[in-house]
Amino acid sequence: MQTTISLAVRAALPFLALTGATTALAQELAAAQASQAAIATVTVSGVRQARAVANADPQRTPTSAYRIEGDALARQNVGTLEELQQLVPGIHIQSTDPSDMQIAIRGVGDGGGQASGDANIGMPSAVAVYLDNVYLARPGMLANGLGDVDWVEVLSGAQGTMFGANATGGVLDIHTRAPSFTPEANLTLSAGQRGYQRVNAMVSGPLGEHVAGRLNLVRSGSDGAVTNRRTGHRLNGGTANGGRGQLLFKGDAGFTLRLSADYNNSNNTPTPVLVATHAFNGKDHYAAHVGAVGGNLVFGPDVDLDDENRVHIVQGGVSAQANWLLGGGYQLRAVTSLRYYRTQPSMADGLSVRIYADTGTAVRDRSWSQEVRLDSPGGGALDYALGLTYLGQHMETVAHTRYAATALPGLFLDSASYRGLDVVRLGMLRDRMLSPFAQGTWHVTPSVDVTAGVRANVQRKSGSFVRYNRVPFNSGMLTEHHTLPSGTLVATWRPGADWSTYAAASYGEKSGGLNISAGAARQAGLDSLFIKPERARSGEIGAKATLAGGRVAVKGALFLTEIGDFQTQGYDPEDQQVYLMNAGSFRSRGAEASVRLTPTRAWEIDAGAVYNDAYYTDYANARCAPEVTLAPKPPPSCNLSGRRVFNAPRLTYNASARYSWTGPGELRSFVGARYARRSWTYGTVDNSEFTRIPGYGLASFSAGTGGKLRQGEWTASVWVNNAFDQTYWRRLVNGDYGSVAGWRGEPRTVGATLAYTY
Question: Which of 146, 205, 281, 507 has the fewest CB atoms below 10 angstroms from its CB?
């Protein structure tokens, strides 16, 4: 890609007028344009290579990673975190709404999966999500989805050394585009079936000699694919509005300061449908109870509801990243952040008559962090990074289950004590973590490197749980202290200019949890309120190569991860609450491979696959599945040792291809296709056959064209997602009396996108 001074000047003038830049600067640029005939043309090339080097962390270990550029996300029409799994094999995301998202990489991830309206706030995510070097305490804090993204990297295995917060399963490292000193703007409009819409507007450019700004606004939404027969409303969709503003200051002597602020407001109607009911001893107890209260039994894809689920979320934050280039080539980075998250759900019972309504857990979450990192100069025999990270979180929850003041709750739940009952639960969590870290790379020879790193997370977590009106309980203030070590050791050998091999080992621990629910304490005593840290040991060997003059890039790896004291959730149907537990150990082992082909400039082909055998090595006292507990004489617990780990498909693979060409009138056109498939997996931690999610594959196609328009470029495309209208489940859960509910994936959606880039 090439650009000249004259083009930059011509592009800058209208933007300076738009942003109100100083008159003196505008006149100076105008004078430069007027005298361009006397100025030799200056050409800048190699921009793509320069960007790649600038984005590379010198201490990034050369282990398995999938990196996707923001332009590729836009071309694939991928705008949400959940859609990322259609491009990256080995990652599994269960999501019912932005406040409820579980992520696993290679089978290692969040131990949720139970059916409950309670949210237990005492356990962090095993897959850490970072946005512009800021740790997000929950995946739902990714306010604006994947809009205006520069690049995303998915890192596998224990990553606790350089990513210090609980990353026993891996990391999603997301970076947005920074403000530019070259004026640019973009407007993208997408629309599709069932009210699908996505609008993204961006403007960026200089605000002064040393200051640039960037503003990105996003609106997205869809009506959903579930119809309430009673009201005619389309459910399981939602809308979101958000924005992100940035300022970039570039000072003298290698100093930069990047300030960011974002805000997002969303409203969603997450709605499961009835998938199945099961009979025990010749009787369908769920159907019988629904009939006893005069309810209408409706199986998906539709529902019959007298009240509908609604979730309102407001979130946002600010961050500051300062970089100094010090004497001798040392670099100092400081990242400061403050984030907030508010969710207010109003959940219904999923029936056509009221048993309970306006139920759910409202969450108020504040988190803040400070990281300081010093990088040594490169080019010597040893380069290293030293740093210190501080993380803080303060979360409060207020949960209600409001039962109707009629006889119906008693009939449905077989107890008159529920009539007019409002079960209230109050939760509080305070978390503080201070962690020093160091990592270095010894360049043993020009072809051999050894990287080693350590981190110690010193954590203090406290919290409480109070329950009123049913099974009253007050935990008092609970406090736990842990020092959580992490370590990394990687050896890299480059046998040739285009080949690289590595062997890696890592260890990490995820912070302990506080079991802030009454059910566990009543069953197992006060000691069960404290959840031990989860331990992860990972090993990996792999190779990467660039062949055929750069037209072929391949990589492959063998991996093994062992998880001890697996943190997961149980569900007490009697008290109707989730509780946390350590569930023994499991092993994840397998292989992965990917290839990227660019045989000509017109073709881009990508393919990748992960085979993952994840199974419990010791899970002797697991909670039994409903098909066991509802049968005659059920055992007190079940042994799942040797069984598959839930949320861990054995095989996932992805493939995509894009062909582009230039036609008459200098129109640049393209056609593209992608396919992503995953094998079956258990949807709940009890390995219930009722909630076994069948394997499925999703195909998408797109085609478009574009060209120049004045000083910018336009593009127009049409696309179809889930082209073969595959029925699939994002999540399946067990309900009352052997029923099964599920959140359906999006059916076939046809749409179009228009974009203009200046």
Answer: 281
Per-residue burial over 437-476, b if 16 or more Cβ lie within 10 Å, else e, is bebebebeeeeebebbbbbebebebebbbbbeebeebebe
Question: Is omega for the bond preceding 14 within 30 degrees of 0, making it cis?
Answer: no
How far is Cα of residue 343 from the mean position of the Cα atoms in its chain? 18
pLDDT at 41: 30
Angle at 464 between CA 139 and CA 394, to 5 degrees: 40
pLDDT at 42: 31
SS3 106: coil
Helix 23-34 × helix 5-19 angle, to 10°: 150
Burial letters for 158-187: b for 16+ Cβ neighbours within 10 Å, e otherwise? Answer: bbbbbbbbbbbbbbbbbbbbbbebebbbbb
β-bridge partners, 299: none
- How many whole angstroms separate alpha carbon 472 and alpha carbon 656? 55
Q: What are the DSSP calls for 204-252, one per residue?
A: EEESSSSEEEEEEEEEEEE--SEEBTTT--EES-EEEEEEEEEEEEE-S
Judge contact between 167 and 129, C-beta under 8 A: no
Which tokens go with 561? 């991860």
Average pLDDT over residues 118-143: 77
State whether residue 309 is helix, strand or coil.
coil
pLDDT digits (tens, 9 = 90+) for 518-535: 555 555 566 777 888 989
- Please state, in angstroms and rounded to a whole number, the distance separating the CA atoms of residues 742 and 734: 9
Does the CA dihedral 488-494-500-503 come out positive or negative?
Answer: negative
Measure CA 318 to chain center: 19
Tokens of 344: 């207010």
Name 1's Cβ contacts closer than 8 Å, sequence gap at least 6: 45, 47, 48
Position with higher pLDDT, 486 vs 140 = 486
pLDDT digits (tens, 9 = 90+) for 207-245: 999 999 999 999 999 999 999 999 999 999 999 999 999
Tell me what the mean pLDDT of segment 126-147 comes to.
81
pLDDT digits (tens, 9 = 90+) for 629-669: 999 889 988 999 999 998 899 999 999 999 999 999 899 99
Quick one: 348 exposed, middle or buried, by C-beta within 10 A (0-12, 13-18, 19+)? buried
pLDDT at position 94 over 70:
yes
Q: Give the rounded percent of residues in the chain with a pLDDT score beyond 70.
A: 87
Largest CA distance in the chain: 94
Report which of residues 167 and 34 the model is more confident about: 167
What pLDDT digit, counting tens, does each position of 698-749 carry?
A: 999 999 999 999 889 999 999 999 999 999 999 898 888 999 999 999 999 9
Domain boundary assignment for the chain? 1-45, 46-757
List the beta bridge partners of residue 561.
Answer: 538, 588
8 Å CB contact between 412 and 449: no
Q: How far apart are CA 480 and CA 461, in angstroms?
A: 5
CATH architecture group of domain 46-757: Beta Barrel (2.40)
Within 13 Å of residue 448, how many CA atoms lie on the same side as its CB?
A: 3
Please name the residues in contact with 665: beta carbons below 8 A apart, sequence gap of 6 or more.
Answer: 707
What is d(CA 337, CA 130) in angstroms, rounded to the nearest whole number? 12
Q: What is the phi/psi pair of residue 270, to 5°? A: -65, 125
Separation between Cα atoms, residue 581 and residue 572, nearest integer Å: 12
Query: What would the pLDDT profile of 307-359 be if each residue is shown by its tens digit?
Result: 999 999 999 999 999 999 998 899 999 999 999 999 989 999 999 999 999 98
Confidence of residue 470 (pLDDT cuts 50, 70, 90): confident
How far, in Å, CA of 410 to CA of 403, rounded?
Answer: 10
